[in-house]
C-alpha cells in the first residue's frame, strides 16, 4: 500500500511545482467577495441539497450494510432504502417547485444534447469502470499474479488511457482543419 503512495509522489511533486510557479491569468474579472456571497446564498438551492445529500447517504449506507453487516431483509437496510426513497421523492417535488432556480432544473433534462450526453457518458464510464475493476481481478485469478504484479500488468492500460485523454484534450483545443 505504501509503495503506491511513493510511486505517485514524484509526478505529484512535479505537477505541484508546475502549478505553483505558473501564473494562470483570469479570463474574466471576478466580482468583489462581499457582493458575491449574498448572491451565492440566494441562488444556491440549499434546501434541495439538504434533501438530496441525506437521501444519497442513506441509499449508499443501505447498499453498504446490505449483505455485509446486516441481511438484506433486515429492518435497518429496508428502513434506509425507504428513507432514501421518501427523501428523494420529496427532493423531486422540491426541485419541481423551484423551477429554473432548482439545483437540477428539470428544463435542462428536456434538451436532447443533455440527456444524450448523459447516456453516452454512462456507457463510456461504465466500460472504463468495469475494465478498471475486473482486469486486475482477471490478472490475479486467471494469470495467478500477485496484487503488485497485477498493478504492474494494469499499467499499460492506464498509461494508454492517460495518453489518449491528453491527446484528445490537445486535439480539442487545436482542431485540425479539413481544408
Task: List the main descriptive attributes of the protein structure presented here.
single chain; 179 residues; mainly alpha; 7 helices; extended
Tell how many strands the DSSP assignment holds: 0
- Which percent band covers the strand fraction? under 5%
User: What is the CA-atom radius of gyration, in angstroms?
Assistant: 23 Å
Which whole number gives the mean pLDDT?
87
* Largest sheet properties: none
Distance between the termini: 52 Å
Please work out how many helical segments DSSP would assign.
7
Gross morphology is extended
Percent helix, as a range, is: over 70%
Structure description:
The chain has 179 residues and is mainly alpha-helical. Among the domains are: 66 residues; 58 residues. Helix content is 76%, strand content 0%. The protein is built from seven helices and no strands. Helix 3 packs antiparallel against helix 4 and helix 6 packs antiparallel against helix 7. It is extended. The chain starts with a helix and ends in a 6-residue tail after the last helix.
Report a brief summary of the structure:
Helices cover 76% and strands 0% of the residues. The chain has 179 residues and is an all-alpha fold. It starts with a helix and ends in a 6-residue tail after the last helix.
